């Protein structure tokens, strides 16, 4: 095999490779010989088929198979001899071949860059430390109680106020004609909840049990029923009962009803949940800051082909967002050229950081274990109660799905390794400060 480098620019390499005809012929004859042990041709015992007949019947297909293998093996050898790692699948173009003659082809490839050793101790980060205040726990406890409030009939005669619940019968009509779905009996309506058409609930504030009210409203233009959208309607409403919300007592019995031992146990459970939420926020914040810090230190070139693929994926999301009118506010009003410039820069950053994290993980023997994979699959299964077995089977039978779990797991493990080696300083702050910084970012 003869290999000649014909171009070297940045990370791009091009080679002219010549595979001698004798090598191809030897491989073809070896393959035909092996095949002759397997094929069955009338009049010949296995292994006794004459080679001329084998060439006549199978020569063309075997030659195609041998050529493909020769190209792959010689291309791999050419790159390995020069310690070049392809960033993407190399491009191969056969320039010359006839039976009995040398095989000549060009190999064009973008290679992965050399990444200098990074002293992780020079990476300085602040890690927020958020302490859960007792007041936050009590507020959350109040929300739990609010979610379990019950409506109790008010025996005293009084006018309904916002927040009360009216048990009502109602009949709706448009131009004096009742419409389908506009009738109900014994319906509990919380005033101020926004459950009914805008303006409906407001007209019942001040009502008393036994009142019959005519409530006039106009259906919104975007109402789901086209027959009613934008039309004026009148509802005859009969107030059957007035109810007020009653919150449960916050005591040990309330906690036991939720599966906890006592009220202190409920408080501790709530505090733990809030701490987990803050932990997730802190993790995202530190990871973002770490990637920003790494981006400043990483200055190696990146393969244009990888950047192009990443940009294409981003740009598809931008085009979909345009179609759905969900483009980020900061991108609205920008021209396509402006957006392409910005997102090309983002694609380059993503590729560079991806290569850097992969390099750091490889150099430091970071690995995703089977236990890590099993845990991730379990977490996915827990997202679909009652369908856990189907989720397990899906991942068991789908290698691509497993790989989709492996990639973020590997990234997180590399991030954890870097954070363990970096100069990280804990900084106490309130949850409000953390949220403000996240919003700003």
UniProtKB/TrEMBL annotation:
PROSITE patterns: FKBP_PPIASE (PS50059). One of its GO terms (biological process) is protein transport. It comes from Insolitispirillum peregrinum. Its main location: cytoplasm. The gene is tig. It is found in: Cytoplasm. InterPro entries: PPIase_dom_sf, PPIase_FKBP_dom, Trig_fac, Trigger_fac_C, Trigger_fac_C_sf, Trigger_fac_ribosome-bd_bac, Trigger_fac_ribosome-bd_sf, Trigger_fact/SurA_dom_sf. One of its GO terms (molecular function) is peptidyl-prolyl cis-trans isomerase activity. Residues 163-245 form the PPIase FKBP-type domain. It is an enzyme of class 5 (isomerase). Keywords: Cell cycle, Cell division, Chaperone, Cytoplasm, Isomerase, Rotamase. It catalyses: [protein]-peptidylproline (omega=180) = [protein]-peptidylproline (omega=0). Its EC number is 5.2.1.8. Coiled coil: none annotated. Involved in protein export. Acts as a chaperone by maintaining the newly synthesized protein in an open conformation. Functions as a peptidyl-prolyl cis-trans isomerase. Pfam families: FKBP_C, Trigger_C, Trigger_N. The lineage of its organism: Bacteria, Pseudomonadati, Pseudomonadota, Alphaproteobacteria, Rhodospirillales. Consists of 3 domains; the N-terminus binds the ribosome, the middle domain has PPIase activity, while the C-terminus has intrinsic chaperone activity on its own. Belongs to the FKBP-type PPIase family. Tig subfamily. One of its GO terms (cellular component) is cytoplasm. This is Trigger factor. It comes from the Bacteria. The keyword Lipoprotein does not apply.
């Amino acid at each position: 095999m003869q290999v000649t480098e014909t171009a070297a620019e940045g990370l791009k390499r091009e080679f002219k490779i010549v595979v001698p005809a004798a090598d191809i012929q030897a491989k073809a004859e070896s393959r035909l010989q092996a095949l002759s042990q397997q094929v069955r041709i009338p009049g010949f015992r296995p292994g006794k088929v004459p080679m001329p007949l084998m060439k006549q019947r199978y020569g063309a297909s075997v030659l195609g198979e041998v050529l493909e293998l020769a190209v792959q093996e010689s291309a791999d050898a050419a790159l390995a001899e020069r310690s070049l790692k392809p960033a993407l699948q190399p491009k191969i173009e056969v320039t010359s071949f006839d039976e009995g003659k040398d095989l000549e082809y060009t190999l064009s490839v973008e290679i992965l860059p050399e990444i200098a050793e990074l002293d992780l101790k020079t990476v300085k980060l602040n890690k927020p430390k958020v302490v859960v205040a007792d007041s936050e726990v009590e507020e959350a406890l109040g929300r739990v109680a609010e979610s379990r409030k019950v409506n109790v009939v008010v025996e005293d005669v009084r006018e309904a106020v916002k927040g009360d619940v009216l048990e009502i019968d109602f009949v709706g009509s448009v131009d004096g004609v009742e419409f389908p779905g506009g009738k109900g009996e014994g319906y509990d309506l919380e005033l101020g909840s926004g459950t009914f058409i805008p303006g409906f609930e407001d007209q019942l504030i001040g009502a008393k049990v036994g009142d019959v009210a005519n409530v006039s409203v106009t259906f919104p233009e975007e109402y789901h029923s086209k027959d009613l959208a934008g039309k004026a309607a009148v509802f005859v409403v009969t107030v059957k009962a007035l109810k007020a919300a009653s919150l449960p007592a916050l005591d040990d019995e309330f906690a036991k009803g939720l599966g906890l031992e006592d009220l202190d146990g409920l408080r501790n459970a709530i505090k733990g949940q809030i701490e987990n939420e803050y932990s997730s926020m802190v993790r995202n914040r530190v990871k973002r800051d770490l990637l920003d810090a790494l981006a400043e230190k990483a200055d190696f070139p990146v393969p244009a082909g990888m950047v192009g693929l990443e940009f294409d994926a981003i740009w598809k999301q931008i085009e979909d967002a345009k179609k759905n009118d969900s483009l980020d506010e900061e991108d609205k009003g920008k021209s396509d050229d402006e957006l392409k410039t910005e997102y090309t820069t983002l694609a380059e950053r993503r590729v560079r950081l991806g290569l850097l994290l992969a390099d750091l993980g490889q150099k430091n023997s970071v690995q995703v274990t089977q236990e890590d994979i099993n845990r991730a699959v379990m977490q996915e299964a827990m997202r679909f109660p009652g369908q856990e077995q189907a989720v397990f089977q899906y991942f068991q039978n789908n290698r691509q799905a497993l790989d989709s779990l492996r990639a973020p797991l590997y990234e997180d493990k590399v991030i954890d390794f870097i954070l363990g080696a970096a100069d990280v300083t804990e900084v106490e702050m309130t949850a409000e400060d953390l949220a403000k910084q996240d919003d700003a970012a």
